[in-house]
Amino acid sequence: MSLTIAMNNALTGLKVNQNALAVTSSNLANINNANYSRKVLLQETQVIAGVGAGVTADTIRRNVNTLIQRDFREETTTLASIQTESNYLNRIQQMFGSVANKNSVGDLIDKFNASLETLGSSPEISANYFTSVNNGTILAQRIRDMADTVQAERMRADAEIKQAVDDIEQQLVIIAEINGTIPGQTALGLPTGDLEDKRDQAIDKLAEYMDIQYFVTDKNQVNVLTKTGHTLISGSFQADLSFRQTTLITADESYPAVLDGIHLNAGTTPSAANDITSSITSGKLGALFKARDTILPSMTNQLDQMSAALRDQVNRAHNRGANTPMGLGTGALDPATMLGSRSFPNTAQAMTIGSDVNMVLLDSTGAMVGGMGTITAGATTPAAVQTAINTFLGANGTAGFDADGRLEIKLNSNVRLAFKDTGAATNAGDSVIQYDADGDTVNENYNGFSNFFGLNDFFVTPQLSTTVPAVAGQGSQTGISSGLVVRQDMIDTPSNISRGSLSGTPPNYALGPGNNDVALQLASVFEQNYTFNGVSNGPDVTSTTISGYAGVMLSYSATVAQSAENSLSFQSSLAGDLQIKMQNESGVNMDEELANMVVFQNAYNAAARVIQITGEMLDTVIELA
């Protein structure tokens, strides 16, 4: 009987050590597999009827420290978020250019300013007109390029969100399938360690995209939820995530009005009720939404503010000039000599002119043609102003409103029209116009008669959703940086740029050949400080020059990008340390496995030797019988 027990004990040892060698060989085969966790064959003493009956080893355990693993996944989520945000911030920083290389938008503003100063000092040189208009055109183009780059980055983020959602769906499928397989494998006594490794790999990938929480059930299934508790995986059930990618994004499109979010189990009816975007605050996905809906729109806001200041201040000075284009004809199909930028939906709406506005006609030499006309200060309407101009022009031209409600003036080919405000010197002579442009029933103040109508603008800013330009106080200002342009007739004929205003004593005015006061005022625009509003996720309210604000934007962007780089360096180090700790526990150590292999081999040989000896003893017993 004892010999039989010895034989059975040896057989169990043989089997167990054979299985241990198989596990060890699998560990060694996966020594370079970062997603593999070391397997350990758990051995237990086998007892039958109170008597030792060898050894058993039915369970293969993974050597994983779940606490470190959980910490690693949390830090991986943060790392992916910082890394994604840093990538977008760095690309924005590149968009601004470098001060050292003199290619930033601030440098282009300074270059435009310098050309206006040169024009002011030498208005008789025709090349100075071309240079000023050309530098203004280059500046506007650069601002438009920056604005377009911001929207392109938003489209990139939107596309990456779609890719992330598709990848998340794939990982959820893997987790759900493995959850459904493991209970059956366990019931059959089959090892599940490799399946758990594959499931862990999917959970690790999921943690890169979004902040999650999870727990293991008594069936060895992993249930996964969002940080705020929305179920993504429950057993073998997989939630459905959906997202609609947008093929074109403009500055006035935002989430959730136009742009889509992440919807959970929405089917064919995505709605605010199944939108879980707000619960995804970290990971790559959270950073992509932050870039698309917060960081990049902040950049648009800053560019729009700078563009509005550039447009309004340059246009105010330029509209004081008398160097308006010569008439192009008064035919019905002829283009207007002077076409306003401001649109009047109701030309009978009340407005007030703060001081008289004088009108004169000039010939090609700048000499006055005929007498002076006056638009009298006081309460009036756009229609009444149009009538007053028409009456003054007589046979020399016509004034009316185009289909968009803009004041247009057509002149005979031998005259040009000039306005002269008689406002206070403290307001640079501009008349103050009171008018409710934004429809809030409260009148706003606008400086300069011609400037208010936009009759001699230098820069125009078409709106995104209409052909009518946005002007100070009217029209959507969102996205104007993507449409900032120099007025086309000045690009075609640079001499149309204003360089001087009417001089003389009413009613005798003229535009002298050496008059350069407007050109000098244009240059001085860039020396004055203006108030720029604070921007969410951008610079605080600041008072500076237009070029200075370009520097503020560049500085803020550089500071934020550097801060993200510093955070990325720290987080990479932290996540790396946790990964090393996790791999030290779950990874395969070649020396350890080879040592174990020698032990299991010797144990196997010993068990085989016991069987051999026991067999010989049994043969002897049989012979003695």
The structural class is alpha+beta
Biggest beta sheet summary: 4 strands, antiparallel
User: Treating each run of at least 4 consecutive H or I residues as one helix, how many helices?
Assistant: 12
Helical content (DSSP H or I, runs of 4+): 40-55%
Which percent range describes the beta-strand content? 15-25%
Shape: rod-shaped
What radius of gyration results from the CA coordinates?
Answer: 39 Å
Read across the widest sheet, the strand sequence of neighbours is 3-4-5-6
Low-confidence stretches: none
Separation of the first and last Cα atoms: 15 Å
E-strand count:
25
Write a structural description.
By secondary structure, this protein is an alpha+beta fold. Among the domains are: 2-63 and 588-624; 68-87 and 155-295, no CATH class. Helix content is 48%, strand content 18%. It contains twelve helices and 25 strands. It has a four-stranded antiparallel β-sheet with strand order 3-4-5-6, with helices on one face. The chain has a four-stranded antiparallel β-sheet with strand order 13-10-17-18. A three-stranded antiparallel β-sheet has the order 9-15-14, covered by helices on one side. A hairpin with a 4-residue loop joins strand 4 (222-226) and strand 5. Helix 1 (2-29) runs antiparallel to helix 12 and helix 3 (105-121) runs antiparallel to helix 10. The two termini are 15 Å apart. The model has no long low-confidence stretch (mean pLDDT 90). This is Flagellar hook-associated protein 1. Residues 584-624 form the Flagellar basal-body/hook protein C-terminal domain. One of its GO terms (molecular function) is structural molecule activity.
